[in-house]
Protein backbone atom coordinates (compact mmCIF):
# COMPACT_ATOMS: atom_id res chain seq x y z
CA UNK A 1 0.00 0.00 0.00
CA UNK A 2 1.01 3.69 -0.21
CA UNK A 3 2.92 3.16 -3.45
CA UNK A 4 5.24 0.56 -1.87
CA UNK A 5 6.34 -2.09 -4.38
CA UNK A 6 6.92 -5.59 -3.03
CA UNK A 7 9.01 -7.96 -5.16
CA UNK A 8 8.29 -11.64 -4.61
CA UNK A 9 11.52 -13.59 -4.00
CA UNK A 10 12.65 -15.75 -6.91
CA UNK A 11 12.50 -18.87 -4.73
CA UNK A 12 8.73 -18.33 -4.49
CA UNK A 13 7.99 -16.72 -7.85
CA UNK A 14 9.71 -19.33 -10.03
CA UNK A 15 7.87 -22.41 -8.71
CA UNK A 16 4.64 -20.36 -8.65
CA UNK A 17 5.11 -19.50 -12.34
CA UNK A 18 5.87 -23.14 -13.18
CA UNK A 19 2.76 -24.33 -11.34
CA UNK A 20 0.61 -21.64 -12.99
CA UNK A 21 1.82 -22.79 -16.42
CA UNK A 22 0.83 -26.38 -15.67
CA UNK A 23 -2.57 -25.29 -14.37
CA UNK A 24 -3.02 -22.83 -17.25
CA UNK A 25 -3.94 -20.09 -14.80
CA UNK A 26 -2.32 -16.74 -13.90
CA UNK A 27 0.33 -16.93 -11.17
CA UNK A 28 -1.64 -15.23 -8.41
CA UNK A 29 -3.85 -16.09 -5.46
CA UNK A 30 -7.39 -16.69 -6.68
CA UNK A 31 -10.84 -17.79 -5.55
CA UNK A 32 -9.82 -21.38 -6.31
CA UNK A 33 -7.00 -21.22 -3.76
CA UNK A 34 -8.99 -19.48 -1.02
CA UNK A 35 -12.29 -21.33 -1.42
CA UNK A 36 -12.47 -24.24 -3.86
CA UNK A 37 -9.32 -26.06 -2.71
CA UNK A 38 -9.09 -24.95 0.92
CA UNK A 39 -11.50 -27.02 3.00
CA UNK A 40 -12.43 -30.34 4.56
CA UNK A 41 -15.43 -31.59 6.55
CA UNK A 42 -14.39 -32.74 10.01
CA UNK A 43 -17.42 -34.87 10.90
CA UNK A 44 -20.71 -36.15 9.52
CA UNK A 45 -22.39 -33.95 6.96
CA UNK A 46 -24.25 -34.10 3.68
CA UNK A 47 -23.13 -36.89 1.35
CA UNK A 48 -23.27 -37.25 -2.41
CA UNK A 49 -24.50 -40.30 -4.38
CA UNK A 50 -21.21 -42.10 -3.66
CA UNK A 51 -21.44 -41.49 0.07
CA UNK A 52 -18.74 -38.82 0.16
CA UNK A 53 -19.21 -35.96 2.61
CA UNK A 54 -19.73 -32.63 0.88
CA UNK A 55 -19.84 -29.03 2.11
CA UNK A 56 -23.13 -27.20 2.39
CA UNK A 57 -25.19 -24.86 4.52
CA UNK A 58 -25.99 -27.76 6.90
CA UNK A 59 -22.30 -28.53 7.49
CA UNK A 60 -20.97 -25.03 8.19
CA UNK A 61 -20.06 -25.91 11.77
CA UNK A 62 -18.11 -28.95 10.54
CA UNK A 63 -16.15 -27.17 7.81
CA UNK A 64 -12.47 -26.61 8.40
CA UNK A 65 -10.37 -24.07 6.51
CA UNK A 66 -6.96 -25.61 5.81
CA UNK A 67 -5.06 -22.36 5.39
CA UNK A 68 -6.19 -19.16 7.06
CA UNK A 69 -4.76 -16.41 4.93
CA UNK A 70 -5.29 -13.51 7.35
CA UNK A 71 -5.63 -13.20 11.11
CA UNK A 72 -9.05 -11.55 10.89
CA UNK A 73 -12.11 -12.83 12.81
CA UNK A 74 -14.46 -12.63 9.79
CA UNK A 75 -12.11 -14.55 7.49
CA UNK A 76 -13.21 -18.04 8.46
CA UNK A 77 -16.90 -17.08 8.38
CA UNK A 78 -16.55 -15.41 4.95
CA UNK A 79 -14.78 -18.30 3.25
CA UNK A 80 -16.91 -20.97 4.94
CA UNK A 81 -20.01 -19.26 3.55
CA UNK A 82 -18.57 -19.45 0.04
CA UNK A 83 -17.41 -23.05 0.44
CA UNK A 84 -20.94 -23.95 1.53
CA UNK A 85 -22.36 -22.04 -1.42
CA UNK A 86 -20.13 -23.91 -3.88
CA UNK A 87 -21.20 -27.18 -2.26
CA UNK A 88 -24.89 -26.32 -2.54
CA UNK A 89 -24.28 -25.38 -6.20
CA UNK A 90 -24.01 -29.09 -7.06
CA UNK A 91 -27.79 -29.20 -7.53
CA UNK A 92 -27.65 -26.25 -9.94
CA UNK A 93 -24.77 -27.74 -11.94
CA UNK A 94 -26.54 -31.10 -12.18
CA UNK A 95 -29.72 -29.37 -13.36
CA UNK A 96 -27.81 -27.37 -15.98
CA UNK A 97 -26.02 -30.47 -17.24
CA UNK A 98 -29.32 -32.32 -17.51
CA UNK A 99 -30.93 -29.29 -19.13
CA UNK A 100 -28.27 -29.13 -21.85
CA UNK A 101 -28.90 -32.80 -22.71
CA UNK A 102 -32.67 -32.31 -22.68
CA UNK A 103 -32.40 -29.28 -24.97
CA UNK A 104 -30.28 -31.27 -27.43
CA UNK A 105 -32.92 -34.02 -27.38
CA UNK A 106 -35.71 -31.46 -27.83
CA UNK A 107 -37.43 -32.93 -24.77
CA UNK A 108 -39.75 -30.27 -23.35
CA UNK A 109 -40.88 -32.16 -20.20
CA UNK A 110 -37.25 -32.95 -19.34
CA UNK A 111 -36.18 -29.33 -19.86
CA UNK A 112 -39.05 -28.20 -17.63
CA UNK A 113 -38.01 -30.66 -14.93
CA UNK A 114 -34.39 -29.48 -15.08
CA UNK A 115 -35.48 -25.85 -14.80
CA UNK A 116 -37.56 -26.73 -11.74
CA UNK A 117 -34.49 -28.42 -10.20
CA UNK A 118 -32.38 -25.39 -11.03
CA UNK A 119 -34.91 -23.13 -9.34
CA UNK A 120 -34.72 -25.24 -6.18
CA UNK A 121 -30.92 -25.19 -6.36
CA UNK A 122 -30.94 -21.40 -6.55
CA UNK A 123 -33.06 -21.27 -3.40
CA UNK A 124 -30.35 -23.31 -1.66
CA UNK A 125 -27.70 -20.83 -2.82
CA UNK A 126 -29.74 -17.93 -1.47
CA UNK A 127 -30.10 -19.65 1.90
CA UNK A 128 -26.29 -19.75 2.28
CA UNK A 129 -26.36 -15.98 2.82
CA UNK A 130 -27.20 -15.02 6.42
CA UNK A 131 -30.20 -12.84 7.14
CA UNK A 132 -29.51 -11.06 9.38
CA UNK A 133 -25.71 -11.16 9.43
CA UNK A 134 -24.13 -12.53 12.64
CA UNK A 135 -21.80 -9.57 13.16
CA UNK A 136 -21.33 -5.90 12.33
CA UNK A 137 -20.30 -4.91 8.82
CA UNK A 138 -17.03 -3.54 10.19
CA UNK A 139 -15.72 -7.11 10.48
CA UNK A 140 -16.08 -7.61 6.72
CA UNK A 141 -14.68 -4.15 5.99
CA UNK A 142 -11.47 -4.96 7.90
CA UNK A 143 -11.22 -8.33 6.17
CA UNK A 144 -11.50 -6.80 2.70
CA UNK A 145 -9.01 -4.03 3.44
CA UNK A 146 -6.42 -6.65 4.37
CA UNK A 147 -7.33 -9.08 1.61
CA UNK A 148 -7.32 -6.67 -1.34
CA UNK A 149 -3.51 -6.16 -1.56
CA UNK A 150 -3.12 -9.91 -2.11
CA UNK A 151 -6.15 -10.58 -4.31
CA UNK A 152 -6.37 -7.44 -6.43
CA UNK A 153 -3.47 -5.08 -5.61
CA UNK A 154 -3.82 -3.05 -8.80
CA UNK A 155 -7.62 -2.97 -8.92
CA UNK A 156 -9.76 0.01 -8.02
CA UNK A 157 -12.33 -0.37 -5.25
CA UNK A 158 -15.02 -0.59 -7.92
CA UNK A 159 -13.21 -3.46 -9.61
CA UNK A 160 -12.60 -5.12 -6.26
CA UNK A 161 -16.32 -4.92 -5.48
CA UNK A 162 -16.87 -7.13 -8.54
CA UNK A 163 -14.54 -9.71 -6.99
CA UNK A 164 -16.59 -9.68 -3.78
CA UNK A 165 -19.76 -10.11 -5.85
CA UNK A 166 -18.62 -13.01 -8.02
CA UNK A 167 -15.04 -13.96 -7.13
CA UNK A 168 -13.47 -16.11 -9.83
CA UNK A 169 -16.26 -18.62 -9.32
CA UNK A 170 -17.82 -20.32 -12.33
CA UNK A 171 -21.20 -20.25 -10.63
CA UNK A 172 -22.67 -16.89 -11.70
CA UNK A 173 -21.22 -17.00 -15.26
CA UNK A 174 -22.62 -20.53 -15.66
CA UNK A 175 -26.10 -19.52 -14.49
CA UNK A 176 -26.19 -16.45 -16.73
CA UNK A 177 -24.96 -18.35 -19.79
CA UNK A 178 -27.26 -21.35 -19.43
CA UNK A 179 -30.37 -19.25 -18.85
CA UNK A 180 -29.41 -16.93 -21.71
CA UNK A 181 -29.46 -13.69 -19.72
CA UNK A 182 -28.90 -10.73 -22.01
CA UNK A 183 -25.37 -9.32 -21.91
CA UNK A 184 -24.66 -5.76 -20.89
CA UNK A 185 -21.59 -3.55 -21.01
CA UNK A 186 -21.41 -2.88 -17.28
CA UNK A 187 -18.43 -3.74 -15.06
CA UNK A 188 -19.95 -6.95 -13.71
CA UNK A 189 -20.35 -8.36 -17.21
CA UNK A 190 -16.74 -7.52 -18.07
CA UNK A 191 -15.62 -9.11 -14.79
CA UNK A 192 -17.54 -12.32 -15.55
CA UNK A 193 -15.88 -12.64 -18.93
CA UNK A 194 -12.39 -11.85 -17.61
CA UNK A 195 -12.65 -14.14 -14.57
CA UNK A 196 -12.84 -17.33 -16.65
CA UNK A 197 -9.05 -17.49 -17.05
CA UNK A 198 -8.66 -17.78 -13.26
CA UNK A 199 -10.95 -20.81 -12.96
CA UNK A 200 -9.91 -24.47 -12.70
CA UNK A 201 -9.63 -26.23 -16.06
CA UNK A 202 -12.74 -28.39 -15.61
CA UNK A 203 -14.82 -25.33 -14.77
CA UNK A 204 -13.63 -23.58 -17.92
CA UNK A 205 -14.48 -26.64 -19.99
CA UNK A 206 -18.00 -26.70 -18.56
CA UNK A 207 -18.50 -23.03 -19.39
CA UNK A 208 -17.19 -23.68 -22.90
CA UNK A 209 -19.72 -26.49 -23.31
CA UNK A 210 -22.56 -24.18 -22.27
CA UNK A 211 -21.38 -21.49 -24.69
CA UNK A 212 -21.50 -23.96 -27.59
CA UNK A 213 -25.09 -25.03 -26.89
CA UNK A 214 -28.53 -23.47 -27.18
CA UNK A 215 -29.51 -21.48 -24.09
CA UNK A 216 -32.61 -22.26 -22.06
CA UNK A 217 -34.15 -18.93 -23.06
CA UNK A 218 -33.54 -19.58 -26.77
CA UNK A 219 -35.11 -23.02 -26.41
CA UNK A 220 -38.20 -21.62 -24.68
CA UNK A 221 -38.57 -18.80 -27.22
CA UNK A 222 -38.17 -21.32 -30.04
CA UNK A 223 -41.04 -23.40 -28.71
CA UNK A 224 -43.23 -20.32 -28.44
CA UNK A 225 -42.56 -19.28 -32.02
CA UNK A 226 -42.65 -22.73 -33.64
CA UNK A 227 -45.84 -24.26 -34.96
CA UNK A 228 -45.67 -27.62 -33.24
CA UNK A 229 -47.94 -30.27 -31.83
CA UNK A 230 -47.11 -29.22 -28.27
CA UNK A 231 -50.05 -28.30 -26.08
CA UNK A 232 -50.34 -24.67 -25.04
CA UNK A 233 -50.35 -25.84 -21.43
CA UNK A 234 -46.99 -27.62 -21.82
CA UNK A 235 -45.33 -24.56 -23.32
CA UNK A 236 -46.85 -22.32 -20.64
CA UNK A 237 -45.51 -24.61 -17.91
CA UNK A 238 -42.07 -24.50 -19.57
CA UNK A 239 -42.19 -20.70 -19.61
CA UNK A 240 -43.28 -20.56 -15.99
CA UNK A 241 -40.37 -22.79 -14.91
CA UNK A 242 -37.91 -20.64 -16.84
CA UNK A 243 -39.25 -17.39 -15.39
CA UNK A 244 -39.04 -18.76 -11.84
CA UNK A 245 -35.35 -19.48 -12.43
CA UNK A 246 -34.81 -15.88 -13.54
CA UNK A 247 -36.63 -14.61 -10.45
CA UNK A 248 -34.55 -16.77 -8.11
CA UNK A 249 -31.33 -15.74 -9.87
CA UNK A 250 -32.33 -12.11 -9.36
CA UNK A 251 -32.85 -12.81 -5.65
CA UNK A 252 -29.46 -14.53 -5.46
CA UNK A 253 -27.75 -11.58 -7.15
CA UNK A 254 -29.51 -9.21 -4.75
CA UNK A 255 -28.02 -11.15 -1.81
CA UNK A 256 -24.58 -10.89 -3.40
CA UNK A 257 -25.11 -7.14 -3.79
CA UNK A 258 -25.95 -6.82 -0.09
CA UNK A 259 -22.67 -8.57 0.73
CA UNK A 260 -20.73 -6.17 -1.51
CA UNK A 261 -22.28 -3.14 0.18
CA UNK A 262 -21.18 -4.46 3.58
CA UNK A 263 -17.67 -5.41 2.46
CA UNK A 264 -16.84 -2.37 0.31
CA UNK A 265 -19.00 0.46 1.72
CA UNK A 266 -16.98 3.19 -0.02
CA UNK A 267 -18.47 2.15 -3.37
CA UNK A 268 -21.76 0.75 -2.05
CA UNK A 269 -23.92 3.49 -3.56
CA UNK A 270 -22.24 3.16 -6.97
CA UNK A 271 -22.53 -0.62 -6.91
CA UNK A 272 -26.18 -0.58 -5.89
CA UNK A 273 -27.38 2.27 -8.13
CA UNK A 274 -25.24 1.60 -11.21
CA UNK A 275 -24.02 -1.99 -11.38
CA UNK A 276 -26.90 -3.80 -9.70
CA UNK A 277 -29.45 -1.62 -11.42
CA UNK A 278 -28.08 -2.75 -14.79
CA UNK A 279 -27.69 -6.35 -13.62
CA UNK A 280 -31.33 -6.43 -12.48
CA UNK A 281 -32.47 -4.77 -15.70
CA UNK A 282 -30.87 -7.43 -17.91
CA UNK A 283 -32.23 -10.21 -15.72
CA UNK A 284 -35.74 -8.75 -15.81
CA UNK A 285 -35.57 -8.32 -19.59
CA UNK A 286 -34.72 -12.01 -19.88
CA UNK A 287 -38.18 -13.02 -18.66
CA UNK A 288 -40.41 -14.67 -21.23
CA UNK A 289 -43.88 -13.16 -21.60
CA UNK A 290 -46.34 -15.78 -20.39
CA UNK A 291 -47.97 -17.68 -23.22
CA UNK A 292 -51.33 -18.05 -21.49
CA UNK A 293 -51.68 -14.28 -21.25
CA UNK A 294 -50.98 -13.91 -24.95
CA UNK A 295 -53.49 -16.63 -25.82
CA UNK A 296 -56.18 -14.81 -23.85
CA UNK A 297 -55.46 -11.68 -25.90
CA UNK A 298 -55.32 -13.61 -29.19
CA UNK A 299 -58.79 -12.46 -30.39
CA UNK A 300 -57.39 -8.91 -30.49
CA UNK A 301 -55.03 -10.02 -33.27
CA UNK A 302 -56.89 -9.53 -36.60
CA UNK A 303 -54.86 -12.34 -38.21
CA UNK A 304 -55.88 -14.77 -35.51
CA UNK A 305 -52.32 -15.50 -34.32
CA UNK A 306 -50.42 -14.47 -31.25
CA UNK A 307 -47.72 -11.85 -31.04
CA UNK A 308 -44.45 -12.43 -29.19
TrEMBL record:
Q: Which GO terms describe its molecular function?
A: heme binding; metal ion binding; oxidoreductase activity, acting on single donors with incorporation of molecular oxygen, incorporation of two atoms of oxygen
Q: Which UniProt keywords apply?
A: Iron, Metal-binding
Q: Which GO terms describe its biological process?
A: L-tryptophan catabolic process to kynurenine
Presence of the UniProt keyword Disulfide bond in the record: no
Pfam families xref list: IDO
Q: Per its UniProt record, what InterPro entries does this chain match?
A: Indolamine_dOase (IPR000898), Trp/Indoleamine_2_3_dOase-like (IPR037217)
Q: Could you say which protein family the record assigns here?
A: Belongs to the indoleamine 2,3-dioxygenase family.
Q: What is this protein called?
A: Uncharacterized protein
The species is: Lotharella globosa
Lineage of the organism:
Eukaryota, Sar, Rhizaria, Cercozoa, Chlorarachniophyceae
